[in-house]
Amino acid sequence: MKIGVIGAGNIGATLAKKLAASGHEVKLANSKGPDSIRELASDAGATAASKEEAVRGVEAIVVSIPFARLPELASLLAQVPADVVVIDTSNYYPFRDEEIKEVDSGKPESVWVSEQIGRPVVKAWNALLAETLVSKGQPASAPSRIAIPVAGDDGQAKALVRRLVEETGFEALDAGSLIDSWRQQPGTPAYCTELHLDELTSALATADKALAPLNRDALMTFFMSEKDLTHEKVVAKNRALTTNVSA
Fold it and tell me: 166 is in which domain, residue-wise?
């Protein structure tokens, strides 16, 4: 499959590497141009490209840029055929992004993204930490494989994304429609808690929409004040506040 990845940060670059390793033809782009990421792309087994090149002639586009910048892609994606699947990996954090009243009022993040860029999206790979993506993937046969949610409105598009998620080393759980994707946003039990399939199913079902942003902000306050913060501490704190699963 031909895949474009827009965003060469921790998530985008890692996805490019994992998808290329699975045999896909991957083009990687960022905001600074291909010359700035040629070595990074080469190391990942991908091709450095401009944003325009990255979305041309592909079957899927992974968007992995800061949430507040997603509207900037509207004109770029307007030129992309309707059958190309767009995958949103982003998360909204008011302390980092500009405050967005619609999202603060309860509109699911990826519904807002879809409206801003003018096309449907599938939400995936947003509910895991960068280190989880880098080092915690396992073969499909592994009994302790971590599961992550995939939400979207188009069944075929979602099935394609679930296959890609599986190829990156994680169990892909159908998390329902995009309107329900708030259940995998920051502050929910499904978010960055490294759960197995049955645990994740329960986490999605028990998510509290009103509580999620309060949990999100409390967690960020804690993380920003904590010294010697490790990956394990982040997962444990997320679990302690949002789930009944111990680390």
Answer: 66-179
